[in-house]
Amino acid sequence: MGSRKSKHIIPSTTLTEDQIEKMCQQLHLSPDEIRQRHSEFIHQYPHGVITREQFFDCLNEVWPETHIDKFASHLFATLDQDRNGGIDFMEYMLLTCKLDSGQMNVNDDENVYLGLLFDIFDRNHNGYLEKRELKPLVESIYDLAGLPEGERRGVNSSHAQVKYLLNKLDKNGDKRLSKQEFLNEENWNHDEQFGVLFFN
Ligand SMILES: [Ca+2]
Ligand SMILES: [Ca+2]
Ligand SMILES: [Ca+2]
Asked: Could you say which of 125, 166, 194, 197 has the lowest number of CB atoms within 10 Å?
């Protein structure tokens, strides 16, 4: 899994006026802000792209003690929208602007985090987290929280946790979680089982 090569990347280190205009509309930034962010990006990534390896290294720095591989793969796949194996400036900006401005219809950091998790794990982009999408979500949370494999059994197995999450969050009983159900903060704040993992 880790040996996938970044083969189809055509790095671009320049921005065209068309791209700037498009980004201004999409990201609600001024052309100057975009040029500034772009020059910072190129300073850090001179080839104009964040490779899979660089991305994993970066997350490893954030979570040095944990197994981030699965989570990093999901996050990378979400960010690499054109699936060319690298994160270009536009793809990078889509994420950072979302995080900066709380464009996920939420106001605080916890919810931006949840919103991002939702987007990452809604792999078929249908606006719902289904059972098969909740399992990798639970496993990634466990990885990030550093829960040892030996403790992921019984009530802590991913199967049991998916059931638990659905029981708790699926308010309309359709066996899947809408973004609204998933982002309902009330459900998380006082949750002893998952609240602790999510918000520590
Ligand atoms: Ca890409
Ligand atoms: Ca889905
Ligand atoms: Ca539901």
From this structure: 125
Answer for the pair 102, 27: CB distance below 8 angstroms, yes or no: no
Taking residue 108's Cβ as centre, other Cβ atoms within 10 Å add up to 9
pLDDT of residue 198: 57
Residue 75 pLDDT greater than 70, yes or no? yes
Q: How many residues does the chain have?
A: 200
Task: Give me ligand 2 centre to Cα 61, in Å.
Answer: 30
In-domain check, residue 33: yes
Q: How far is the CA of 171 from the centre of ligand 3 (A)?
A: 6
Nearest bound ligand to the CA of residue 50: 1
Q: How far is the CA of 28 from the centre of ligand 1 (A)?
A: 21
CA of 6 to the centre of ligand 1 (A): 10
Q: Which of 95-99, 162-166, 186-190 has the highest mean pLDDT?
A: 162-166
Strand stretches in 106-154, DSSP E: 128-129
Gap from CA of 80 to ligand 1 centroid (Å): 4
The structure's pTM equals: 0.73
Count of domains forming the chain: 2
Q: Does residue 9 form part of some domain?
A: no
* 22 and 78 both lie in a single domain: yes
Domain that holds residue 159: 112-199
Give me ligand 3 centre to Cα 176, in Å: 5
